[in-house]
Amino acid sequence: MAKKILLSGIQPSGKPHIGNYFGMMKQMVDFQDDYDVYAFIVDYHALKSVQDAKSMKGNIIAVLLDFLAIGLDPKKALLYKQSDISEHTELAWIFDTITTMPYLMRAHAFKDAEAKNKEIDVGSFNYPMLMAADILLYDPDIIPVGADQKQHIEIARDTAEKFNRIYGDTFKLPEAMIMKEVAVVPGTDGRKMSKSYNNTIPLFAEYEEIKKCVMSIVTDSGEGIPKNVYAIHNLLRPASELLPLYESKIGKYKELKELLIEDLEKFIAPLRERRKEFEKDIPKALTILKAGGEKAKKIASAKMEEVRGKIGVNVY
Ligand code: TYM
């Protein structure tokens, strides 16, 4: 029996953090034996924030090394980048023609920009259409993401339904996989961990950097258990172990932070070491990405042939 397909992507827009890891990247590795995993780098999406060729190249290679370092096995999973498969942007255009402006104006990212009186670029406005194409081209079953991407998956489903209604059954409706405990990994200030809040713990941080991040975790002298420290610690150890420990150290914030530093170091050090190994042979890593792109291209172009047939442009 064919395996189900699990697919997700990440922007090459800087260093990934442990929020990206627990919210999405880990699932790609954990499920690679049981699912056909498609992991991709959404470089065209990242163009809205990375507008310098050198940074873009560096970021793409960095995410590639990150995926390999966390244990994504190219023999089991397909690893590719969006820009290698022009069908993504082609299908996004077709989706544009069946989507209304008011519908996209309901997207959170658009509403946030509007609320801040920011002038939104067309690419950001249209972001969910390219994301719908990223997904629907491959008929995946599940999409592991953090809670911040929930609406985007709903838009992809709506778009599939709309297309199917107009042109006949073509796309499978994907399901988001949002793990409750890691749906919103909190940052060092208790808000969602995010590069834009400057509250992250980088996934491959060196020991000194881990220390600095943990020491900056915001605590409130009135709280018994420092909730921001606990919430991050809880990613690494279950509540059954952690609660008694925290209860035995009420008020001892520094000691608890030191324990968290040690636990983070234990978790990150092996990943960091593996990443350094992959870094020694970047051409080899790039071969993996290129081969992944070639395989993904075959799947995507077969799907696009079907789409072209459905919309009636295949006259030859
Ligand atoms: P991106 O690059 O912002 O983030 C990658 C993944 O990390 C998750 N994430 C988090 N999860 C839990 N807690 C957090 N604090 C946290 N911060 C980030 C995100 O939810 C995401 O799953 N639009 C996507 C990329 C994309 C995509 C796709 C994903 C483009 N096309 C198709 C899936 C399928 C994005 O910007 O993710």
From TrEMBL:
Q: Which NCBIfam families match?
A: trpS
The record, for SUPFAM superfamilies, names:
Nucleotidylyl transferase
Does the entry feature the keyword tRNA-binding, yes or no?
Answer: no
Q: Name one GO molecular function term.
A: tryptophan-tRNA ligase activity
| Family under the similarity heading | Belongs to the class-I aminoacyl-tRNA synthetase family.
| UniProt xrefs under InterPro entries | aa-tRNA-synth_I_CS, aa-tRNA-synth_Ic, Rossmann-like_a/b/a_fold, Trp-tRNA-ligase, Trp-tRNA_synthetase
E.C. number(s) listed in UniProt: 6.1.1.2
The processes (GO biological process) annotated in the record are: tryptophanyl-tRNA aminoacylation
In which organism is this protein found? Candidatus Nomurabacteria bacterium RIFCSPLOWO2_12_FULL_41_10
Q: What is the lineage of its organism?
A: Bacteria, Candidatus Nomuraibacteriota
Recite the UniProt keywords alphabetically: Aminoacyl-tRNA synthetase, ATP-binding, Ligase, Nucleotide-binding, Protein biosynthesis
Known catalytic reactions: tRNA(Trp) + L-tryptophan + ATP = L-tryptophyl-tRNA(Trp) + AMP + diphosphate + H(+)
User: Where does the secretion signal sit in this chain?
Assistant: none
> Know the name of this protein?
Tryptophan--tRNA ligase
